[in-house]
């Protein structure tokens, strides 16, 4: 879908604050409400605007430990990968799962838990019990100086 300047301004505004009313959004981008709403609906229908979510404060919820886990698999078969992906998708602690190249690992997981006990439970009771997992290497996040959810609109 080709995005014009108004579309990009709509997307930037909604990425910054998804709770904007149509009137507030229209005022912010310089359109009247009707064409603004038509553009938002078109962006939704096209799939460019994929949804709306609330961002939660992990620390306020007692989730204080974030880690990245590199996972190595024993076999590189579609069935093995599908099984692994199905299992990690069912783990609430897994924020992201990426099939990667250029590393000794096959997958990179971003996980969040309350503490080291929670991490140990996740690793030993869930992740390492998935058929095909042969290697696990963990890195713990000490600080996140940049953490964006907004995508760049080039």
UniProtKB/TrEMBL annotation:
Coiled coil: none annotated. GO terms for cellular component: cytosol. Pfam families: AsnC_trans_reg, HTH_24. InterPro entries: ArsR-like_HTH, AsnC-type_HTH_dom, Dimeric_a/b-barrel, Tscrpt_reg_AsnC-like, Tscrpt_reg_AsnC/Lrp_C, Tscrpt_reg_HTH_AsnC-type_CS, WH-like_DNA-bd_sf, WH_DNA-bd_sf. PROSITE patterns: HTH_ASNC_1, HTH_ASNC_2. The keyword Cell division does not apply. It comes from the Bacteria. Residues 3-64 form the HTH asnC-type domain. One of its GO terms (molecular function) is sequence-specific DNA binding. GO terms for biological process: regulation of DNA-templated transcription; response to amino acid. Keywords: DNA-binding, Transcription, Transcription regulation. PANTHER family: LEUCINE-RESPONSIVE REGULATORY PROTEIN (PTHR30154), TRANSCRIPTIONAL REGULATOR AZLB (PTHR30154:SF34). This is Lrp/AsnC family leucine-responsive transcriptional regulator. It comes from Zhongshania antarctica.
